Amino acid sequence: MQTVTDFVKQGIEHILTGPDHLLCVFGLLLLVSSPWMLVKTVAVEMAAFIAWFNATGPAGDQPLPALARAGLAHLYFESIHPFEDGNGRLGRGIAEKALANGAGQPSLTALSLVIQLRRKEYYAQLEAANKGLEVDAWLDWFADVVLAAQAHTLGWLEFLIQKTRLLDRLRGQINARQERALLRLFREGPDGFTGGLSAGKYMAITGAPAATARRDLGQLVELGALRRTGQLKSTRYWLSIAPQGLAQQPASRRRREPKC
């Protein structure tokens, strides 16, 4: 039979300090005297969070705007931090659920991806909101992330649509080698290969000799499937489609990750 301590170790993050335990709940460090009190405290906080989340939904007694509700729900859940692992993934899922509630339908968003790209800023914003219990700056930052995530999603949808149109237009005009190379490029996403597609990479993908690779690539440029940059050994090829709004890794300042 599992003991309470076993359960705590598996499901609840805690810091042992001698005979007592520290728990971070909504930015406050609470000192509890036993694992059972720790479990009970987290259970109470989670019950309060669930009640708040339901009450602030579109059909709740105290509805909030979707963007504010999503940002607050994520911060609220991360501040309770009920599990030893996976709190970030669950918190982002809760935020996406709140956004979908506001839209009235399931929604596609790259929220987790954009937060991952901006994770240093993310940790710093969470830490600041936890310490000061001031959420305005957090909500401003979170709103920017949601907008970037929506733009990224729209960019990817545009990329997939343009990919389909391009392949439809090229049907019957390209050989098997060229098709294989294009499909490999498309798997890399809108940015293609880092540094572009070289003749050497084309040869590696298709098994074509150098002269055939140069001829194939030149034909793809003429057909509008690829664009060419550089000259001689610096020649590189890129997909001719370029969706807008895709998230990029920012040159963010290095910040310390939260301890609580």
Give a verbal description of the structure.
This protein is mainly α and 260 residues long. The chain folds into 2 domains: 4-153, Orthogonal Bundle (Fic-like fold); 155-239, Orthogonal Bundle (Arc Repressor Mutant, subunit A). It contains 10 helices and 5 strands; from the N terminus they run αβββαααααααααββ. It has helices at residues 4-11, 35-55, 66-80, 87-103, 111-117, 119-132, 136-170, 176-187, 199-206, 210-222; strands at residues 15-17, 20-25, 28-32, 226-229, 236-239. The strands form 2 sheets. Strands 1-2-3 form a 3-stranded antiparallel β-sheet, with helices on one face. A two-stranded antiparallel ribbon has the order 4-5. Helix 5 crosses helix 7. Residues 1-34 and 249-260 have low confidence and may be disordered.
Architecture blueprint of SSEs:
Blueprint: H1 4-11, E1 15-17, E2 20-25, E3 28-32, H2 35-55, H3 66-80, H4 87-103, H5 111-117, H6 119-132, H7 136-170, H8 176-187, H9 199-206, H10 210-222, E4 226-229, E5 236-239
Helix pairs in contact: 2-3, 3-4, 3-7, 5-7, 9-10
